[in-house]
Amino acid sequence: VGVPSESPFDAIAAAAAGEDLPPAWVEQLKPGGRIVAPLGGVDQRMTVITKDETGRVSRRTTEAVRFVPLRSGTV
User: Fold this and answer.
1) According to the model, what pLDDT value does residue 1 have?
2) How many whole angstroms separate alpha carbon 18 and alpha carbon 40?
3) What distance in Å separates the CA atoms of residue 2 and residue 73, rounded to the nearest whole number?
4) What is the pTM of this model?
5) 3-class SS at 6?
6) Distance of alpha carbon 47 from alpha carbon 70, whole angstroms
7) In the prediction, which pLDDT does 74 show?
8) How far is CA 57 from CA 45, 60, 67, in A?
9) CB 49 within 8 A of CB 57
10) 8, 10, 18, 34: which has the highest count of C-beta atoms within 10 A?
11) CB environment 5-28: b (16+ within 10 A), e (fewer)
12) Which residues does residue 11 pair with via DSSP β-bridges, in sequence order?
């Protein structure tokens, strides 16, 4: 769920892989901000998500990676 009380964030870096980004992360990203996260199941790719000054989100995928899975609702 992110940390809505501390948002918006300039950057978010994920240390675990999810199938896709949690929507809350994109919502809590400041315009001009960036998220770097491994995404995918078996075939994970490092992904850079940017939000431009108008709020438009773009995604760029880079190299293959292997991270532990991101678990929803766990601490």
Assistant:
1) 79
2) 6
3) 11
4) 0.85
5) helix
6) 15
7) 52
8) 18, 10, 24
9) yes
10) 18
11) eeeeeeebebeebbeebbeebbeb
12) 34
